[in-house]
Amino acid sequence: PVKVTKICCIGAGYVGGPTCAVIALKCPHIQVTIVDLNKARVDAWNSPDFKLPIYEPGLVEVVREARGRNLFFSTDVDKGIEEANLIFVSVNTPTKKSGVGAGFAADLNYVEAATRRIANVATSSKIVVEKSTVPCRTAESMRTILEANSKPGCRFDILSNPEFLAEGTAISDLFKPDRVLIGSLQTPGGRDACQSLAAVYANWVPKEQILTVGLWSSELSKLAANAMLAQRISSINALSAICEATGANIDEVANAIGYDSRIGPKFLKASVGFGGSCFQKDILNLVYLSESLHLPEVAAYWRQVVEMNEHQKRRFAKRVVDTMFSTITGKRIAVLGFAFKADTGDTRESAAITLIRDFQSEKAYVNVYDPQVEDEQIWQDLQEASPLVPLDQIKKQVTICPSAMEACMNAEAVVIATEWKEFLDIDWEQVYKRMNKPAFVFDGRLLIDAERLRKIGFQVTTIGRPN
Ligand code: NAD
Ligand code: UDX
């Protein structure tokens, strides 16, 4: 097997950035260059005061140690490709917005562009690693493109190495992954390439946690893992609706079923709905794959996981309106949290976006606060959610606040949309004094101590518990 000495990662996003920064940290003998076409993003990765383009606990420390030593960020994609003997393709694969499979299929345009670039530029043999999440058998298309465009004497081996990190815990997930999965063709060349990549991870990951499988299994395992994880959340959220209607308590139910060692306690937290760039996109991708394989029942099964999530978001917004005497017109609602989960500034598919859009259409005023999300991002997301409403109209209805306390000022209701720890330390007595009465709190994250707030005087509504 080839010894990996220089790595290039195409795509300096939420996955490429942290993943390859950690590889550089753990493998000082390997030169790692992360390239991207987005100059602003690359500049941010290179910023002298470490104002990185993404917020992730522990990331700054990693970049501080490795950057300039054996970790480099650049817009020179061609040079990065040329120099490396192993290339990660870590570009975005969003859901297609138009054309065949619109709304379901993955848009493979960026993967193909990166692959063609590799084929055009490379003058020596490369191991090309699919890091992006892609439909099953994408590696086959990549191989065809590479082989059809390669220069004489250039050999390309394709591997699949999906990423399982979760945002907010990316660095600890990368330091101690549950497993690293590498898929390759079961040919001598494929197995050798697989060994080369495995040797990189073996610098810090125990060998028994590096799983090597066939290419198609590897690609499908990524979609399957996300579908199963999201399915657990939709299952617990479906049960939360039954709890609210019957008097059962979703925390008690989750705890009771989680004690079954076959089910396990993790990922059973009822919520206002899952968000993030992966779950919905990857399930829809799986739905599309199932449909293209003429498996409509399989497609319908997975599609329901996403539909349940949509239902949960709508149900929560409706419960807010119902509880506030069936109208929130002209009322001020404080939405705490805008990111799709705590410890990230990422807002992709965040439930907060849907909630605020629903409150806007009920003609409420919204105060929003998030400790990490940039104002520009909030405006962009709200504009995309209501494309027919002009931005200055949105800005008349929505105010971005610099703190949770200011967001709650003179509000009629507080809605917790993201489980930021700092919301536990809010001075709720002060908040109560400054709100209109009755003062409502809606906890979409099972975060706060409802009994304590009720003692202060709040009317508290919690997911998965009756009012
Ligand atoms: P992202 O949008 O944050 O980053 C992708 C980057 O690729 C962008 O900066 C873009 O400018 C760059 N890019 C696109 N085409 C390019 C090209 N031809 N040449 C150079 N750069 C190019 O996306 P992400 O969240 O990092 O996700 C990347 C992939 O990883 C996706 O397939 C996603 O499904 C998968 N994934 C994401 C997560 C996650 O938590 N975000 C976790 C596991 C897997
Ligand atoms: C997910 C997968 O966990 C990760 O393995 C994959 O690589 C990328 O997709 P991510 O989307 O970053 O990671 O975060 P995750 O922690 O999975 O949370 C996704 C959403 O589900 C968030 O909105 C979160 O708040 C929600 N969630 C999670 C729940 O509502 N309840 C839970 O019990 C867990």
UniProtKB/TrEMBL annotation:
Chain sites annotated for binding NAD(+): 11-16, 36, 41, 91-95, 132-133, 167, 278-281, 348
Coiled-coil intervals, chain numbering: none
Xref: Gene3D superfamilies: Cytochrome c1, transmembrane anchor, C-terminal, NAD(P)-binding Rossmann-like Domain
GO molecular function list: NAD binding; UDP-glucose 6-dehydrogenase activity
Catalytically driven reaction(s): UDP-alpha-D-glucose + 2 NAD(+) + H2O = UDP-alpha-D-glucuronate + 2 NADH + 3 H(+)
A GO BP entry: UDP-glucuronate biosynthetic process
EC number: 1.1.1.22
One GO CC term on file: nucleus
Keyword Oxidoreductase listed: yes
Enzyme class: oxidoreductase
SUPFAM superfamilies xref list: 6-phosphogluconate dehydrogenase C-terminal domain-like, NAD(P)-binding Rossmann-fold domains, UDP-glucose/GDP-mannose dehydrogenase C-terminal domain
Pfam family, one: UDPG_MGDP_dh_N
Ranges for domain UDP-glucose/GDP-mannose dehydrogenase C-terminal: 334-450
Family membership: Belongs to the UDP-glucose/GDP-mannose dehydrogenase family.
Protein name: UDP-glucose 6-dehydrogenase
Organism: Coprinopsis marcescibilis
